[in-house]
Automatic annotation (TrEMBL):
It is a multi-pass membrane protein. GO terms for molecular function: ligase activity. This is O-antigen ligase family protein. Residues 238-398 form the O-antigen ligase-related domain.
Length: 481
């Protein structure tokens, strides 16, 4: 179309736009200046959606929430979520036109569970106490899943794209870490300041810590001897930045998730069989059951609150007597459980917990940070939240999805020969596992920061399983493109 325009028309349109935009800026109206950017994005979306996807990944760590910036009352991240919504629409239009999607992906067990989960979210949105809120939740989940699972699997047909995906997220994330640590240094690394120094890019230190923990394993992929020396040096620098950021995030759940991920690493490396793990787990549960009373007494005697001292901060993880953060989690979990008991089948509706849990708070569980207006987080669990919002089936779907991803991912890891792809699968699983553990204590899959890597990691594992695990010649051909 642009080729058909005469040069003087282009000059005329440009001149008129500059004049009009200048007048509007003089009158404090700035939105017209976004038009060239929007037009460029639309052009890229139609002619090179892959580059648009990498742009979305790159801007995710530095995206900002409109609601937190007091730009209207819309809880949407800019620029990522509007772009994901547009890509999702294009995906569905293409799906209608082509009337097909790669059957190997559609039939994969992980995809089947994802589709069943989306179907259940739709059904419980219809039965929801607040259908509009639940449908918004469904729409948000759809653009994450469409962009970074379904489209993601197609991007990872070209296996070298995993490098672009990881570096597009790592580079701006490292920038946020440097920004946050430098700000924190001006406050003498005070633990209280660590709660907000990452703003406006992350809403709090717990979500910040969760994402850092997810990406700590990733630089190890690029530390392999097969990589160029310069790449290994850069990967080492990024690893150091992420570790420092995780330490000074003062996010205890992130620390715990990394420790558990290290345990999983040794389980994979030494090929410890599941029957031995099951035996150890069963013995552990029996010992825990017999010592439950004394354990709870010990926990109640721990009155170490959150602290800028790292050792004291670690001790506060098990404080369920005075630490407000820990006690508030118990309050939210108890509220979610009581909500589930009242509506065990369909729940209260996806995304409705923050609006419905207040009456279910028990006075004995309330803390100094408790609220009745839903402005201080949600159920603080990726597993208990769906229990309240989508009933028992909702939580079962979450557990099934995670179980299937790790079942297929573990089998894939052990099946692959030693080399690049084996390392990619291992460290991607470890990164994903940190969030699986973190999900017991927090939930962030309603944000772009967590959802982009979460669904992207899963897409990468599935893509390797489907496209690159059995056909060496196909892998070599794909890498050569």
């Amino acid at each position: 179309m642009l080729k058909t325009l005469k040069p003087y028309y282009i000059y005329l349109f440009s001149f008129l736009f500059i004049v009009l935009n200048s007048i509007l800026i003089a009158n404090e109206f700035y939105y017209l200046a976004l038009v060239p950017f929007v037009l460029a994005i639309v052009y890229i979306a139609f002619y090179d959606v892959e580059k648009l996807m990498w742009f979305i990944v790159f801007t995710t760590p530095i995206s900002m929430n409109l609601e937190e910036l007091s730009i209207g009352g819309i809880g949407m991240y800019l620029p990522t979520e509007p772009l994901m919504f547009g890509v999702m629409i294009l995906f569905f239009l293409k799906l209608i036109a082509d009337k097909k999607f790669d059957s190997k992906i559609v039939k994969h067990p992980v995809t089947v569970i994802i589709l069943l989960q989306l179907g259940w979210i739709l059904f419980t949105s219809i039965t929801s106490e607040m259908p509009i809120v639940s449908l918004k939740f469904l729409l948000s989940r759809l653009w994450f899943v469409v962009c970074f699972y379904f489209i993601g699997t197609q991007l990872f047909k070209k296996i070298s794209n995993y490098k672009i995906f990881y570096w597009c997220y790592l580079i701006p994330l490292a920038g946020v870490v440097i920004y946050a640590v430098v700000r924190l240094a001006t406050y003498s690394f005070n633990e209280k300041a660590a709660h907000w120094v990452m703003e406006p890019f992350f809403k709090d230190h717990t979500s910040y810590g969760a994402i850092l923990a997810m990406f700590v394993p990733i630089p190890f992929i690029f530390l392999a001897k097969a990589e160029k020396y310069s790449i290994r040096v850069i990967a080492g620098i990024f690893l150091a930045i992420l570790v420092i950021g995780t330490i000074f995030s003062y996010t205890r759940a992130a620390w715990v998730s990394l420790v558990v991920a290290i345990v999983l690493y040794f389980i994979y490396k030494y090929k410890i069989k599941f029957k031995y793990l099951a035996t150890i787990g069963a013995v552990g549960l029996i010992v825990l059951a017999f010592n439950w009373t004394s354990l709870m007494m010990d926990l109640e005697r721990n009155n170490q609150d959150s602290s800028a001292n790292l050792s004291e901060h670690v001790q506060s993880i098990s404080n369920v007597s005075t630490d407000a953060s820990n006690l508030e989690r118990i309050n939210r979990w108890t509220s979610a459980w009581l909500m589930f008991l009242e509506r065990p089948v369909f729940g209260w509706g996806p995304g409705t917990y923050v609006f419905q849990y207040a009456p279910f708070q028990l006075s004995k569980n309330k803390t100094i940070i408790s609220t009745n207006v839903g402005n201080n987080g949600n159920a603080h669990s990726e597993y208990i939240g769906p229990l309240a919002e989508q009933g028992l089936i909702g939580t079962i779907m979450v557990v099934l999805l995670i179980s299937m991803v790790f079942y297929k991912g573990s089998a894939l890891y052990h099946r692959l020969p030693k080399g690049e792809l084996k390392s990619v699968v291992l460290f991607t699983l470890l990164g994903l596992f940190t969030y699986v553990i973190h999900g017991f204590l927090n939930n962030y899959l309603d944000t772009d920061k967590a959802s982009v890597p979460f669904w992207g990691f899963i897409a990468l594992i599935v893509a390797i399983d489907v496209y690159h695990s059995d056909n060496d010649s196909e892998l070599l051909e794909t890498k050569a493109k």
